[in-house]
From TrEMBL:
<dbReference type="Pfam" id="PF00282">
    <property type="entry name" value="Pyridoxal_deC"/>
</dbReference>
<dbReference type="InterPro" id="IPR015421">
    <property type="entry name" value="PyrdxlP-dep_Trfase_major"/>
</dbReference>
<dbReference type="InterPro" id="IPR021115">
    <property type="entry name" value="Pyridoxal-P_BS"/>
</dbReference>
<dbReference type="InterPro" id="IPR015422">
    <property type="entry name" value="PyrdxlP-dep_Trfase_small"/>
</dbReference>
<keyword id="KW-0456">Lyase</keyword>
<dbReference type="GO" id="GO:0019752">
    <property type="term" value="P:carboxylic acid metabolic process"/>
</dbReference>
<dbReference type="GO" id="GO:0004058">
    <property type="term" value="F:aromatic-L-amino-acid decarboxylase activity"/>
</dbReference>
<keyword id="KW-0210">Decarboxylase</keyword>
<dbReference type="InterPro" id="IPR002129">
    <property type="entry name" value="PyrdxlP-dep_de-COase"/>
</dbReference>
<comment type="similarity">
    <text>Belongs to the group II decarboxylase family.</text>
</comment>
<dbReference type="GO" id="GO:0030170">
    <property type="term" value="F:pyridoxal phosphate binding"/>
</dbReference>
<dbReference type="InterPro" id="IPR010977">
    <property type="entry name" value="Aromatic_deC"/>
</dbReference>
<keyword id="KW-0663">Pyridoxal phosphate</keyword>
<dbReference type="InterPro" id="IPR015424">
    <property type="entry name" value="PyrdxlP-dep_Trfase"/>
</dbReference>
<protein>
    <submittedName>
        <fullName>Glutamate decarboxylase</fullName>
    </submittedName>
</protein>
<feature type="modified residue" description="N6-(pyridoxal phosphate)lysine">
    <location>
        <position position="299"/>
    </location>
</feature>
Length: 463
């Protein structure tokens, strides 16, 4: 390839033999990794060990792409757990489709700016098509819309900021006094990101104990609304709790609305994708009444890190709360065009909804429904197996794709030693957890490549 005006200053950007070689190396590695079916689970390495093996790689004149990539492939990557491994069953796993992972490369290669319509209209159009598809699936009106943000934590924060803004404007317009402290009502089992949002916003959380079984209902929420009145600007319903995959009773919470004024936010970061399956759809009744919802494509919608779909019933409420104003931005903000930056606490953004768009466009929505249904079926099957085993106890009947269980007589140290051994032997990544002070462990199942036999094999190690 011809060298174009290459100087020391343009060496890293010009198209040259050197840059061509670098791109080939990286694409070749990516191809091998994406299409590999035997990438090991891998495990973390201690910092001194990494220092010994990796040393310093940032030097005056570089070490070259070949050495840097070899360092990544043979030292750094093996010190990162393979989160898309079928036996990664901890926390909430990730399991991106091949199309979504591959297209993530395209998003980078295309240098798309996803913040404004002016700069990224094509990308924004495609992202919005996905958001509209999700909104329709959740029963929200056609006018609903939003933005893909980095993760559920930022999605929850952005939605709650819009909720408070809305409450403040409503009370001010009515000439009413503003509360001394704003409050969010949510389940005591809500995700920690709700408390994190409250800290950032300097508002209070009113945690409500859910009913036996973990579901928060309107009856649980009512006393909190009676006690705290207009200070409550939002009620958060969880559509798939992280620890158990329990879906709150959204319909009865929404039904409190004629009597009390609040913004209903549904945190479906993990679980709301379950609505795609006819096996679980009924559990989410009432989500159609939400003022805002989130769902993370990097969880059960099979997209790579990092993406959260944040959808507002009335996107204007999100825009009013979040649009940044500055002289240099006036050209973007003083138009009616849809600029994703305006709908959350961010400005510059990657068009992170595109990998999901490409994968959905490639395979079609039915493939997603089938993949989600497969997790639900496998969860029920392994839950029945656990229940039937002597010395095992299901902590709760699973609703979605998380199954939590105890081994009789095991204390925290037993679970920790067992979990470390599983990872050491590269068999599985299953971490200890607990509920109500009792130690347990859990399988979070959302990778369609996970099999019943693999899970049974893990249970067999709990001797
Ligand atoms: C219910 C729920 N909400 C919010 C979050 C936070 O999402 P993220 O990790 O993408 O910030 C999680 C993460 O697991 C979650 O399960």
């Amino acid at each position: 390839m011809e060298r174009h005006n290459e100087t020391p200053a343009t060496r890293m950007h010009a198209v040259s033999h050197e840059t061509e070689e670098i791109v080939d190396l990286v694409l070749d590695y990516s191809r091998r990794r994406i299409l590999s079916s035997d990438t090991p689970l891998d495990k973390p390495m201690a910092e001194p060990e990494l220092r010994r093996l990796a040393g310093s790689s940032i030097l005056d004149n570089g070490i070259g792409a070949k050495r840097a990539l070899a360092l990544f492939e043979h030292v750094l990557a093996p010190a990162c757990i393979t989160t898309d491994h079928p036996q990664y069953l901890s926390f909430i796993p990730t399991a991106p489709t091949k199309a979504a992972t591959a297209f993530d490369l395209v998003v980078s290669a295309s240098a798309v700016y996803g913040g404004s319509w002016l700069e990224g209209s094509g990308a924004v159009y495609a992202e919005n098509e996905v958001l509209s598809w999700l909104a329709k699936e959740f029963g929200l009106p056609e006018t609903a819309g939003g933005v893909f943000v980095q993760g559920g934590t930022l999605g929850n924060l952005s939605a709650l900021v819009a909720a408070r803004d809305h409450a403040r404007a409503t009370l001010t317009d009515a000439g009413a006094e503003l509360p001394a402290r704003w409050k969010i009502v949510c389940s005591a089992e809500a995700h920690s990101s709700i408390a994190s949002a409250a800290r950032v916003m300097d508002v209070d959380v009113v945690p409500v104990t859910p009913a036996e079984g973990g579901m928060l209902s309107g009856a649980n929420v009512r006393p909190a609304l009676e006690e705290h009145g207009a200070a409550v600007f939002a009620v958060v319903a969880t559509a798939g709790s992280t620890n158990f995959g329990i879906v709150d009773d959204i319909a009865t919470i929404a039904a409190l609305r004629p009597e009390f004024t609040f913004w209903l936010h549904v945190d479906g970061a993990y679980g709301l994708a379950g609505m795609l399956s006819p096996l679980a759809r009924h559990r989410f009744a009432g989500v159609e009444h939400a003022d805002s919802v989130i769902v993370d494509p990097h969880k059960w919608l099979f997209a790579p890190f990092d993406a959260c779909a944040l959808i507002y019933r009335d996107p204007e409420a999100g825009r009013r709360a979040h649009t940044q104003h500055a002289e240099y931005l006036d050209t973007l903000t003083e138009t009616a065009e849809w600029s994703p930056s305006d709908y959350a606490a961010h400005l510059t953004r990657r068009a992170r909804g595109l990998p999901l768009w490409f994968s959905l466009a490639t395979y079609g929505e039915n493939a997603y429904r089938e993949a989600v249904s497969a997790s639900l079926r496998l969860t029920q099957r392994i839950a029945a197996e656990i229940e039937s085993r002597e010395g095992f106890r299901l902590v709760r009947q699973p609703q979605l794709s998380v199954v939590v269980f105890e081994r009789d007589g095991w204390d925290r140290a037993d679970y920790s030693a067992w979990s470390a051994r599983l990872l050491d032997e590269q068999r599985a990544f299953v971490t200890p957890s607990s509920h109500a002070g009792r130690p347990n462990t859990r399988f979070a199942i959302l990778n369609p490549m996970t099999t019943f036999e693999q899970l049974v094999g893990i249970l067999d190690t709990m001797v």
